Amino acid sequence: MKKLAVLFLLAVPVLLHAQANPGKSKARRRSKTASAGDPALTRLQELEKTVTTQQQQIQQLTEDLKQRDQQWAHFQQDYVQAKQTASQAQTQAATAETASEQANTAVVALKTDIAKLQTSVGQETTTDKELQKQIGGIQNVLSRFRISGDVRLRSDSIFQNYSGCAACVARNRARVRLRLGVEGKLGEDFIGGIYVASGANVNGTASLADPTSTNETFTNFFERKAVGFDRGYIIFQPQAAKWIKLTGGKFAYDWEHTDLTFDPDLNPEGFTEKFSWDFNNPVVKNVSFEGMQLLFNEVAGGLVGTNVNRGVDSNALGGQAVLRLQPAKIWTSTPSATVLNWNGADPIAQAALPVLPCASAASTGCIQNPLTPAVGTPLPPPLTPAVRVLNSANSLTNATFIAGTGAAQRRAFISGFEYANFIWDNTILTPWTHFPWHVTAEYEQNLRARRSAVAPSRQNKGYWFDTNIGAQKQRNDVQIGYNWMRIEQDAVISQFNESELRAPTNVLANRFYVNWLLRSNTTAAFNWWIGRTLNRNLQNSSLAPGLPAGRQDPYLNRLQFDLIYKF
Taking Cα atoms as reference points, which of 502, 428, 529, 498 lies closest to residue 470? Predict the structure, then answer.
């Protein structure tokens, strides 16, 4: 081994020298060739190779040692981290053990709470089911009822003038109409309803005594407005026989009519019985018949003030027959015929104007019996209206007289009243969906009208014509129409028909109107009424103030702007 080391030390300088002198390689090759047979040289070459191999191995060992040193350093780091992790794990284990004990305690408490909660939930579930049943019952009840109503704001202006009139002053009013009601099913076969509405201003005072108006004027220093029950009724319409409809109470009209006979704000009282059948016939679509018993005054037995009817009640009895036809696909026609007999109507005249008996035939402060004077004899001035007036706008214009003598004197109608009425209503579809054409014509005659001293011919006929185009179904629908009326003095009872006219009877009137559906529940409307008294010479005629004799009543213009909200 020592020899190898010595040889290694001797060979190193030689090898370094050989590497440092590469230019002499040819000489060495020649020297090698020359000394190929020298054993010492061969031995030296082998020793050189061995030294080279050992150097490579030493270098490899050195690199392995470096890697092991690095691995040892990593091992030491991992050991330190593992030791730290173990320490943390021990700490966490101790913490976990403590937490586990606490969790076990919490679990026990939680189980106890859950048991209590389950008991409570069971009780609450039972209570909730009962509450749901109660709520469901309330919902079922409420779902059977429907609340509805409307608010109408109105600007109402009245103009009438003639040359030389000093008292013809325009009147401008702001008015409001309020209505609210509920209607619902009382069972499978019954429907009931209750409605309230604002009253009216009678002689400047809020009152419920006017059956034909629900308009309250903005006046009387912010006073509270009168509100009363406007409707209350029960309808019986059995599901097993839907062709039957029986109504009782104070209700909206359920028969064909126009404003010529009944004001739209008036709700009659009594009973009706309607029988209606639908058909699949190409022309005849429906036939209906209806009976009416309208009760408007009940009288107790004996003398009550100036009422000497002694237990005779007042009513209107009648019936109506209606056909609904479709002569063409675009044309629906509804003719109807009505007969309505008014029994005991004189209390209406007594309520409209008080009795002021005549002291003598020459008295001028009362109305004498117009049946006594000869034809053409002028009547004395009419009475001043009483404080109690059924309708201050719808003043009494029917012919009246003073009946009876002494304490039994009372005001009475000259004519009786039995309406014979024919209405022909038509709807024609046009190429424009939103503009159907609607035409209504009506002829009415009072079959019990009588002649008076100043009216040798019976004033018993009424005529009505209305036409409009357009509908009121969808937003921005517009309806434009015209209405013409001619109503003779005793054609109808003047206290119950249209109250917006110049006068309720003995009147000639025109109306132009426009309705615009701003929203599904909001309408803007305009009405222009143009009318005058038909015959100024008749008793109770409505005339312009101070109208000279022989001069025709000038046309009265009435402009109404409405905003109506429905819900």
Answer: 428
